[in-house]
Amino acid sequence: MEAQERLNIRNLSVKCGNCDTYQTLSGFAQAGESNVYSYECENDICDPAVTKTLIEVPRELDAFADRDPEWRGGGRHGDDLSGAADGD
To answer: What is the dihedral of CA 5, 9, 28, 43, to 10 degrees?
Structure first.
């Protein structure tokens, strides 16, 4: 059986379609079986409520969230959007 390839979100570049600049990783949350990463522009041109980018990565493929369980944006510290309590 072949090993499943994993995705490291830090290896992606996310560019805004509005201002044509690269967005910055600004948030992390858990939703169901996925990890959700938020990217936003760091300028005075874009409104984050309009141009925020969300990227969902299935947890079993997400290498970045596993890299450091103490990281305040990932591991056990990410927001759980599934509605489940910690430890469920």
So the answer is: -160
